[in-house]
């Protein structure tokens, strides 16, 4: 565990007591089952941790800083023709006993009907201060800025105001975003005199969280998400003077690792006499050393079984072992969006084999959603579904060399994002430029390529110019779902 402390001054309380409050903070959870070969994460382990914290302090609140409903392999399974679309995650979060959740950008990957249904199924409280429906109104069952009212052992009341802020990176038609900083300023003004502590639960980029801390110094603690990697920072600005007796150490910003590899445990100690707030934050690893909570484990197992049946109905055999590997297959988001890995090479090669006569293969790294390293050992069809949950056909396409060069250049420029391209039979040389099968790319000829269906849709970041309607592009054939191609490629590894 790692420990960080901060001391902040806050509003007036009249009765003497130090009230301890625990916040269990998670973000970016896409899998209800453990990852990394069962060694890390898992909602049933989170439930056990929550129960332990509650036993020590009944003033414990479990919070999600966005991204749970999508993307997930299990969420793509269809039951009676309908995707689970996060239904399994809401059921698991209900079983764990979450108290609050703010919205992440991936909540809006699913349809409006699916999203509203997930809200109605949730036993915990969703809240958002800067996200509205298409009519500019709050979504049903989504509060603007709830206030936690809790009492100390001596009966003294402490009020914690919550602000929920979401990045505007998913322009779904049924969603409208408002400026997060201006929204936070308005909410802080509305809370003035009504709360003792202000906590922002955010799903913003780190840069936006930093800007928030500087622009709205009244916020005492920022619990964030979106980055998928644990972060702890402080921003030091001139904060409002509330008590000369408190030493101000700035506004802390925390983010945990995705898929509950880690969580943050924040202990807030509010002194009702001095009006000072002490914050102690610990990064807690979630490993197989934490036993499963039986009730939550049963819920997780039931939903996994439902999802697996849905995959079987779609032609997959999720439990089937298709290969055995002696090395890790690297599907971590930080890896695949910045460089090629043994996993991306395998996928690209499977596309070449699927098309047969293609000179090269290209797919977008954002189609890999597993954000995990598959450990040495047996690989199942479900692992492939986890890697590429959205699937899509492999296309055989003829493309002009000039357009191909533009695509490759932009894909390289997209490093760090989902539009970063993975490929086979292509490499970039600093002196020679792009090489196709070790020969310089010729802009005056066409190439036959194996390419993912999504990449040809024109919907990838900065690659809207690439589509089947682009001049000179010719669709040759539509092949199988890319996941079946990868399964076949892995079976050849045996």
Write a compact overview of the structure shown.
This is Metallophosphoesterase. Helices cover 25% and strands 31% of the residues.
Detailed description of the structure:
The protein is 25% helix and 31% strand. With 494 residues, the protein is an alpha/beta fold. It folds into two domains: 284 residues, Metallo-dependent phosphatases (Purple Acid Phosphatase, chain A, domain 2, 4-Layer Sandwich); 176 residues, 5'-nucleotidase,  domain 2 (Alpha-Beta Complex). The chain has an eight-stranded mixed beta sheet, with helices on one face. Strands 10-11-13-14-16-15 form a six-stranded mixed beta sheet, with helices on one face. The protein has a five-stranded mixed beta sheet with strand order 25-21-29-24-30. Helix 2 runs antiparallel to helix 6. It starts with a strand and ends with a helix. The N terminus is likely disordered.
Low-pLDDT sequence parts: 1-13
Strand content: 25-35%
State the helical fraction. 25-40%
Give the helix tally: 11
What is the average per-residue confidence, as pLDDT, rounded to a whole number?
94
The CATH top-level class label of the largest domain: Alpha Beta
End-to-end Cα distance, whole Å, is 40 Å
Estimated radius of gyration: 24 Å
Please list the strands of the largest sheet in the order they lie side by side: 1-18-17-2-3-6-7-9
Q: In total, how many beta strands?
A: 30
Outline the biggest β-sheet: 8 strands, mixed
What CATH architecture of the largest domain would you give? Answer: 4-Layer Sandwich
CATH superfamily of the largest domain: Metallo-dependent phosphatases
Structural class: alpha/beta
Gross geometry: globular
Write down the domain tally: 2
CATH topology (level 3) name of the largest domain: Purple Acid Phosphatase, chain A, domain 2
């Amino acid at each position: 565990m790692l420990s960080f402390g901060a001391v902040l001054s806050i509003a007036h309380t009249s009765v003497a007591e130090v009230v301890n409050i625990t916040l269990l903070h998670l973000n970016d959870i896409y899998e209800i089952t453990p990852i990394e070969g069962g060694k890390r994460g898992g909602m049933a382990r989170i439930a056990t941790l929550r129960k332990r914290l509650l036993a020590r302090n009944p003033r414990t609140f479990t919070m999600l800083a966005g991204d749970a409903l999508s993307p997930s392999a299990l969420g793509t399974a269809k039951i009676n023709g309908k995707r689970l679309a996060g239904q399994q995650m809401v059921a698991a979060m209900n079983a764990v006993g979450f108290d609050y959740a703010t919205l992440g950008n991936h909540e809006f990957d699913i349809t409006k009907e699916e999203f509203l249904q997930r809200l109605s199924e949730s036993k915990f409280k969703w809240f958002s201060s800067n996200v509205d429906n298409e009519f500019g109104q709050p979504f049903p069952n989504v509060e603007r800025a709830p206030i936690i009212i809790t009492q100390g052992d001596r009966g003294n009341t402490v009020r914690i105001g919550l602000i929920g802020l979401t990045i505007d990176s998913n322009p779904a038609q049924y969603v409208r975003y408002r400026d997060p900083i201006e929204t936070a300023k308005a909410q802080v003004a509305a809370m003035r005199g009504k709360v003792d502590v202000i906590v922002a639960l955010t799903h913003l980029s780190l840069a936006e969280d930093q800007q928030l801390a500087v622009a709205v110094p009244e916020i005492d603690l920022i619990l964030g998400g979106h980055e998928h990697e644990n972060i702890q920072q402080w921003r030091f600005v001139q904060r409002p003077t509330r008590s000369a007796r408190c030493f101000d150490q700035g506004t802390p910003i925390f983010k945990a690792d995705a898929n509950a590899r880690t969580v943050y445990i924040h202990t807030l100690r509010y002194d009702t006499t001095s009006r000072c707030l002490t914050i102690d934050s610990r990064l807690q690893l979630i490993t197989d050393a934490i036993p499963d909570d039986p009730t939550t484990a049963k819920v997780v197992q039931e939903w996994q079984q439902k999802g697996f049946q849905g995959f079987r109905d779609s032609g997959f055999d999720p439990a089937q072992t298709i290969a055995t590997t002696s090395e890790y297959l690297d599907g971590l988001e930080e890896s695949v969006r910045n460089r090629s890995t043994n996993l991306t090479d395998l996928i690209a090669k499977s596309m070449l084999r699927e098309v047969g006569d293609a000179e090269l293969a290209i797919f977008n790294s954002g189609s890999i959603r597993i954000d995990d390293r598959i450990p040495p050992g047996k690989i199942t069809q479900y692992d492939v579904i986890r890697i590429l949950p959205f699937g899509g056909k492999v296309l055989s396409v003829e493309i002009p060399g000039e357009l191909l060069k533009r695509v490759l250049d932009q894909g390289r420029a997209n490093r760090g994002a989902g539009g970063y391209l993975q490929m086979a039979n292509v490499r970039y040389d600093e002196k020679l430029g792009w090489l196709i099968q070790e020969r310089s790319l010729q802009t005056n000829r066409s190439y036959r390529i194996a390419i993912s269906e999504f990449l040809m849709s024109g919907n990838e970041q900065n690659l809207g110019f690439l589509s089947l309607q682009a001049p000179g592009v010719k669709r040759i054939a539509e092949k199988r779902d890319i996941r079946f191609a990868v399964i076949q490629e892995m079976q050849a590894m045996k």
